[in-house]
């Protein structure tokens, strides 16, 4: 049977069964009669079965599966959903006047941002505010993974567990590198790419899939024979706080590479690009809110740029064009697509300004 399965609703099933019964018996079942009740019960069960068959059909294929079923498809290609990664940075503990003695600040000291929905951070190693000093910077990370931990400089100001002798806390630089758990569509994209380019343990796809499987790797690019025959260079985009973990990738590559191949793992070089957008808010919309929406959309685009991927004007336009409240806009910089080297990742710095009506073209 080649006909496509089309699920029917309860009403459709009941109507078909009632019509068939009337056709065969010569009369319609009474609404309160035994036959009508039986038909309604059976229609309900069949409708539920139709829903289950439709669900099973979707979960059967990688391009429509979701949740744990998509995870199972991914496992057949050696892929695992990437977990949430906490943002990393440093906390600056200080006091107004220097103490005459060392003040220990233990690992696990909790601090958070101000506001109704604070984001928590904790020191990841022991530190000391030395005698004669008024401040010390200690490496720290968000207590939970996710983009929420990527806060701006100065956002952390509350000590949840204040170390004795310390008067204040702040973060001198933004916390970065936090990412949410990989969603279905991102995992599906990796899975379909794996199906399109079969990894056989000796090609670029094999090394790419291995590199990107690490939670702290945002993107990767494989360059075969860059240093001559038998060499493979794997360039990964990782946050500064995760550079020390690149040795994990190197060990995994060394353990699984084919014989006679020299694999080198390096961090992608960052290429800064200034992006300036002038937009005209539509009538009735608050300019600051429209600007914030545009900046959020552009920031999301920037975070998705992979190693070696260019920044295209068409992508900038697509990010802005459907934002509610934007009547018109103009990208003033860059004026053309920006290419990235095979070992570079573009880091856009966005500036969004609002023009008066008619100011954008």
From TrEMBL:
Short name of one Pfam family for this protein?
Answer: Baseplate_J
Q: Which InterPro entries match?
A: Barrel_Baseplate_J-like, Baseplate_J-like_C, Phage_Baseplate_Assmbl_Protein
User: Residue ranges of the Baseplate J-like C-terminal domain?
Assistant: 273-347
Domain of life of the organism in this record?
A: Bacteria
Query: Protein name, please?
Result: Baseplate J/gp47 family protein
Baseplate protein J-like barrel domain location is 92-178
């Amino acid at each position: 049977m080649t006909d496509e399965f089309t699920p029917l609703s309860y009403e459709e099933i009941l109507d078909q069964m009632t019509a068939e019964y009337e056709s065969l018996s010569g009369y319609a079942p009474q609404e309160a009669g035994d036959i009508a009740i039986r038909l309604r019960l059976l229609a309900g069960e069949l409708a539920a079965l139709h829903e289950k068959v439709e669900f099973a059909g979707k979960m059967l294929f990688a391009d429509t599966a979701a949740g744990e079923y998509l995870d199972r498809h991914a496992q057949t290609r050696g892929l695992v959903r990437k977990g949430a990664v906490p943002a990393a940075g440093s906390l600056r503990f200080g006091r107004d006047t220097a103490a005459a003695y060392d003040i220990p600040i233990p690992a696990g000291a909790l601090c958070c941002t101000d506001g109704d929905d604070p984001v928590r951070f904790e020191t990841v190693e022991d530190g000391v505010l030395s005698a004669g000093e008024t401040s010390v910077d200690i490496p720290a990370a968000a207590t939970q993974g996710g983009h929420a931990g990527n806060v701006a400089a100065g956002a952390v100001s509350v000590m949840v567990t204040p170390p004795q002798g310390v008067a204040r806390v702040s973060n001198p630089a933004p916390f970065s590198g936090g990412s949410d758990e990989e969603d279905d569509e991102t995992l599906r994209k990796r899975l379909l790419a794996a199906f399109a380019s079969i990894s056989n343990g000796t090609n670029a796809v094999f090394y790419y899939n291995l590199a990107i499987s690490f939670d702290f790797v945002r993107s990767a690019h494989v360059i075969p024979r860059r240093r001559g025959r038998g060499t493979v260079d794997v360039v990964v985009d990782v946050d500064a706080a995760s550079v020390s973990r690149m040795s994990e990738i190197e060990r995994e590559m060394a353990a699984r590479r084919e014989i006679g191949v020299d694999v080198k793992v390096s961090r992608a070089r960052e290429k800064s690009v200034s992006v300036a957008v002038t937009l005209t808010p539509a009538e009735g919309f608050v300019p600051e809110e429209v600007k914030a929406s545009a900046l959020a959309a552009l920031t999301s685009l920037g975070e998705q740029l992979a190693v070696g991927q260019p920044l295209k004007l068409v992508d900038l336009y697509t990010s802005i064009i459907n934002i509610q409240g934007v009547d018109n806009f103009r990208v003033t910089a860059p004026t053309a697509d920006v290419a990235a080297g095979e070992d570079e990742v573009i880091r856009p710095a966005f500036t969004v300004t609002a023009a008066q009506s008619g100011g954008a073209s």
